Amino acid sequence: MTNREKFIEIYTTNIHREGADKLLEFLTSPEKSDFFTAPASTRYHGAYEGGLLEHSLNVYECLVDFCNTDRFKNKFGFTFSNESIAIAALLHDLCKVNFYKTEMRNVKKNGVWESVPYYTIEDNLPYGHGEKSVYIASGYMKLTRDEAFAIRYHMGFSTNDDPNQVGRALEMFPLAFALCVADQEASYYMEGAKQD
User: Fold this and answer.
1) DSSP state of 66
2) By three-state DSSP, how is residue 43 classified?
């Protein structure tokens, strides 16, 4: 099964909210979205074609695992619905859709200059990172407060946000904390920087 097929299966199996079908239609339409081919970053984790899709699936796997630990369930006395977990994990980086473009640069390899592709950023909707993902998803379907805060604060303390505000959000919304952990695990442990 390809990553595209996995994503669509997880999405359609778990997300049944009104408008979810329209969001999936947007994501799967190559004329409207590069979600399935975009990188996850320009030079760090997932800096290759399909990196965003792979990262989203990795975050989903990590989030499912984390929310099902006894430690999480004992602390909060519950876990989240399959729908909320799928929404938070699969949609947390919607802000990266139609965000990267490919340019060429010259690189010397074995004493010979050659033109190679690399990713740059072209942000046509400068609305922040997590905020933009919430904004895009909310344009198609209603998010719960937990889902919205999870997506908004999935970067945790690795942003320029006020640390007190980030800490408070992670304390108040367990899904935000869980998604932050899952995103970090996927980014740094499962994926890491692409080695040349």
Assistant:
1) H
2) coil
Query: Are 46 and 55 in contact, with CB atoms under 8 Å apart?
Result: yes
Alpha-carbon span 161 to 125, nearest angstrom:
19
Say which DSSP state 157 is in: T
142-156 pLDDT, tens digit each: 999 999 999 999 999
First vs last C-alpha separation in the chain: 27
pLDDT, the chain, mean: 93
pTM higher than 0.70 for the full model?
Answer: yes
Residue with tokens 């984790």: 45
* Gap between the Cα atoms of 148 and 133, Å rounded: 9
Distance CA 38, CA 140 (A): 21
Residue 185 DSSP symbol = I
Please tell me the distance from the alpha carbon of residue 77 to that of residue 188, in angstroms, as a whole number: 29
**C-alpha span between 56 and 24 (Å, rounded):** 14
* pLDDT digits 0-9 by tens, 5-22: 999 999 999 999 999 999
Task: State which H helix or E strand residue 119 sits in.
Answer: strand 112-121
pLDDT at 12: 98
